[in-house]
Amino acid sequence: MKIRTGFVSNSSSSSFIIAFPHKPKSVEEVQEMLFGKQEWHYNGLAYGEEPRDVPVRPIAERVFSKIKKKATKKEIFESIADGWFSDYMLIFPGHVDYFNDPEYRAIDRSTVEGRLEMDAYYDKCDKENNKRAKNIAEAFRRVHDDKYIVVMKFSDNSGEVIEEHTGIFERLEHIRTSYH
Fold it and tell me: What's this model's pTM, rounded to 2 decimal places?
């Protein structure tokens, strides 16, 4: 997991690791996998708009357009390692909560030595978290070995609020990784 220390915009993006039962061959197939017979999807998170139902066909079209190839081990790992997801703390029971860790809080960042110590601290944590991300990626691939796994990225800055925030992949096994 990465920690942003510089400017952070109000925009968000998320990556999804999705285990489709097989490679979808059409928009209609994606629509069936995501929504079944449902023709409308509740969009309660549209910024600046009243919550409303939206047709599922355009959502299925956008998802289908992103299904290019099966995800590699590296893509799955990077999706997990570079972000955060809701079960992160549960799956990574020893994960360091940087801001509440006494070791982190004891570092004097006002000195050159303290900043070097901080860099070493972050390196140590990144190594541990990368090891855990690798384990999660390998487990997801192993459990879904018979499925067509893809990694997709969506950003509310690119007009993909519905895809990023409204749970369109709930019917499929997936991991949502946030880059907020």
Answer: 0.78
